[in-house]
Design a protein that fits this description.
Blueprint lengths: L2 E18 L4 E14 L4 E6 L4 H18 L7 H12 L7 H21 L3 H4 L8 E6 L8 H17 L4 E5 L4 H15 L4 E5 L6 H13 L4 E3 L7 H10 L3 E4 L5 H10 L5 E2 L3 H4 L1 H14 L12 H12 L14 E5 L4 H4 L8 H8 L2 E2 L13 H7 L3
Parallel strand pairs: 4-5, 4-10, 5-6, 6-7, 7-8, 8-9
Antiparallel strand pairs: 1-2, 2-3, 4-11
Bound molecules: calcium ion (CA).
C-alpha cells in the first residue's frame, strides 16, 4: 500500500456573531482538514490546529514540505513516517506550525490504519477504558459589548449550558483583574453552587494579576484556572500552583514529547491539556499522555475545530487509562464548543450529534464505532466552504 497524495482543505465561514478571547476578536471560523489518498482507494482524514491565516501557512507545509517526503511510503508505517518527517523538519521548527501540519497528516494515517484493520482508532490504541465520556461545554466568549452587558450575558449563558446537560462549563477571562472577577462571580451565580466551572485566561496575565484572579476563583470554588500566564512562563505556573487551591490547567500551546517533558518537570500543571491536532498527532499524543501519567498529572484534552478533531478526541478519551484508577476514578472530559460551529455540526454525512447525546444521557458522549475515526466527511460541504 502506498500514499499517493496528501491534500489540505482549508474551510471558512462567517460567524453569525463576533467572538473573542483575551488575545483577539474574530468574525470567521476556519478549519484545516488533511486528506491522505492511497493506491488502494483507502482515504484517511486528519485535522491541523490553527485558525485563520495560520491554516493557510500550515497547508503550505502539509502540501509543499511533508507531502513530497511521504508520497510513495506505506501509510501503515505511521510511526516510521512520523519520525522521518520530524527528523527532516527538526532544524526548521520543533514546535508550532510544522508540528501542527504533521499532526493532521498523522491523524489521517491512523484513520487509514483503522480502515485497513477494520478497527476503530480506540481499538488500535488498546481498547475502551470507558464506554461514554463526560462532556463539558465552553462558551461565555468575550464580545465587543459593554462590561455590564457581558456580565449579565455570562450569567445567563452559564445557566443555559448547565441546562443543556453538560457536566461542567468554561468561561473566558481577559478584561483585566477587576472585571474578570465580576465575570467569574456572574458565572458562579448562573450555574449555582453544585456545578463545576472553569475559567480560561488564554495567557493574558502577569503572575501577580493571575494570583489576584486565582484567589477570587478559589473563593468561587472554580474547578480549574486555564492558561493563567504565558506558556513559556513555567516558573509562573509553578508559583500559581503552589499558591492556589484551584487546579492550574494548561499545555494547549506545548508540542511533542520534549516540550511536554520540560513542562511537566517544572511541576506547574495540575491538569494537562494536550492538543492532538497541534502537538504531533495521535502518535505523539500517546507519548505525551504517557509522560503526563508518569508525572501523575491528569489529562483533559484541549479540543478545538471540526468534527474530525472532535471524533479524534472521543477515541483518545475512550482509550485513556484512569489515573490512578479505582472504583470511582477521576474521569477526563471532552471539551465542547457551545458557540456556532458548522464545521463540527455540518461536516459529516452522519453528524456526531454531541448535543443530542448529552441531552439523552445526562452529559455523556460516545466514540464513533466505525473503522478508523469512524466518520465520513461530506465532500459537497467541503467544496462549498473551501477557500483554498
Ligand atoms: Ca484554552
Amino acid at each position: 500500500m502506498k500514499i499517493t497524495s496528501v491534500k489540505s482543505h482549508v474551510l471558512r465561514y462567517a460567524l453569525p456573531e463576533t467572538l473573542g478571547y483575551s488575545q483577539q476578536f474574530y468574525t470567521h471560523r476556519t478549519a484545516h482538514l488533511v486528506e491522505v489518498q492511497t493506491d488502494e482507494g483507502v482515504v484517511g482524514w486528519g485535522e491541523c490546529f490553527g485558525p485563520g491565516p495560520v491554516a493557510l501557512a500550515n497547508k503550505a507545509i502539509v502540501e509543499g514540505v511533508i507531502a513530497p517526503i511521504i508520497e510513495g511510503d506505506n501509510p501503515l508505517n505511521k510511526d516510521v513516517i512520523w519520525h522521518k518527517v520530524y527528523n527532516l523538519l527538526r532544524d526548521h521548527g520543533q514546535k508550532g506550525m510544522p508540528l501542527q501540519a504533521l499532526s493532521g497528516v498523522d491523524i489521517a494515517l491512523w484513520d487509514i490504519v483503522g480502515k485497513v484493520a477494520n478497527l476503530p482508532v480506540y481499538a488500535l490504541l488498546g481498547g475502551k477504558h470507558r464506554d461514554r465520556i463526560e462532556v463539558y461545554g465552553y462558551g461565555m466568549m468575550l464580545r465587543p459589548e459593554p462590561v455590564v452587558e457581558m456580565i449579565a450575558r455570562f450569567r445567563d449563558e452559564a445557566a443555559s449550558i448547565r441546562d443543556a446537560g453538560f457536566v461542567a462549563t468554561k468561561m473566558k477571562l481577559g478584561l483585566g483583574v477587576k472585571d474578570d472577577i465580576k465575570l467569574a462571580t456572574a458565572v458562579r451565580e448562573g450555574v449555582g453552587d453544585d456545578y463545576r466551572f472553569m475559567a480560561d485566561a488564554n495567557h493574558c496575565y502577569t503572575t501577580s494579576d493571575a494570583l489576584a484572579v486565582g484567589r477570587a476563583l478559589d473563593e468561587l470554588d472554580a474547578y480549574w484556572f486555564e492558561e493563567p500566564v504565558a506558556p513559556e512562563d513555567h516558573d509562573g505556573y509553578r508559583e500559581l500552583r503552589s499558591s492556589l487551591k484551584t487546579n492550574i490547567a494548561g499545555g494547549e500551546a506545548e508540542f511533542n514529547r520534549w516540550g511536554w517533558r520540560t513542562l511537566l518537570e517544572s511541576r506547574g500543571l495540575g491538569i494537562a491539556q494536550p492538543e492532538v491536532c497541534a502537538l504531533g498527532g495521535i502518535s505523539e499524543y500517546q507519548r505525551v499522555l504517557a509522560l503526563c501519567h508518569a508525572h501523575f498529572t491528569p489529562v483533559v484534552n484541549h479540543v478545538w475545530g471540526s468534527a474530525v478533531a472532535v471524533a479524534t478526541n472521543l477515541h483518545l478519551l475512550a482509550a485513556m487509562p484512569a489515573l490512578p484508577g479505582g472504583l470511582h476514578p477521576w474521569e477526563p472530559m471532552l471539551e465542547f464548543d457551545t458557540t456556532h460551529n458548522d464545521f463540527r455540526d455540518g461536516l459529516l454525512k452522519q453528524p456526531l450529534d454531541i448535543q443530542g447525546q448529552i441531552k439523552a444521557s445526562g452529559g455523556y458522549a460516545c466514540a464513533p464505532e466505525g473503522p478508523g475515526l469512524g466518520i465520513e466527511p461530506d465532500r459537497d460541504f467541503i467544496a462549498h466552504h473551501t477557500i483554498h
